[in-house]
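Appendix B. Raw example, untouched.
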Amino acid sequence: MTPHIQSIRETLQSAELPQDPTYFGNILASSIAAIMYLSKGFSKSCPQEVQAVLAEALSVTIRVVETVPAHVTVRRNSVVLFQRMIQCLGNRVLRHGPSLLRLLIEHCVEEDVQDVAQIFNQLCIKFQQDAVPAVEGSLLPFLQKCHSLMPNTSDVVGTNDGVIPPHLQAERLSTLKLTFVVVQHIVTYKVTNVLLSPANSPSLLKILQAMYEGASAVQDPVVKKTCIQFFRELTNQWVGQVNGSTGTPQSSFLFFVLEVFIPGMLRSLGACDFNRDALLSRCVTEFSNILWSLKAMRAKEFDQFVLNGALAGCPSSHLEILQAATNAKEMNKGLQTLLS
């Protein structure tokens, strides 16, 4: 492995590299691929001297991405190597997270934006709250980049009726899924403080709105479930922290859920035939878990905004089932009866 590291260093020092980044990028990508192959047999339990070489390989790989960030194969190989080093080096990779994510987000295209999402997700899964410093500065740029990569009607010659063709709709949905899953991973794996950082907290309501639209307006049941799970996790983490003061991210979230998310989801799920679709039925279950958490932690607001607000006008017999629920299972049964 050391000869490949040395080869990369020598290539980076070549005076001809700026004149032909494609040619030298191919050489550098091949060296990174060789390191990837050689590192397959190692894990976190490998000897310290091996870990030192792996750490050196990761550092020099970041330098390669900094030097030829537009080279697609370099980016892709660096992602694979970084993912492997997460397993081999543990939290020693975290200090490289911000720089690598910044470079990848800035230069990624439709073909490799999924690689960036995978790094977010893997860091969240592996390091949970310890991943906050590694990803907090890259979340909004990633979401913005994904938005910029989504095709629109102007991408199709002759399209002027505002309708996006099916093949472009599929591309948009694919990119949207990446954003939804990344944000869902952030809260599911307790990297939630990312949303409270100075860089991201001003955009919290925009993030909530995007996740709400994914849950209520996107027809794909997998997307619906992912976005509802985001609200379920954040409800369980934040709603109990609201102490009556307004203006905090937690209180803003609570009132968004009560005033926007719940009424919208009741309309959305009420229009679905969840009895014939197991995934949609799972969405109803996830949503009922949110209702149960609100009832258990914020009974006054649950009565005011849900029973006497969003559900005002529903048969009293159905509302009594929800009011009498003593656990999530009973709440789910009552909700399914209400929506049927």
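End of appendix B.
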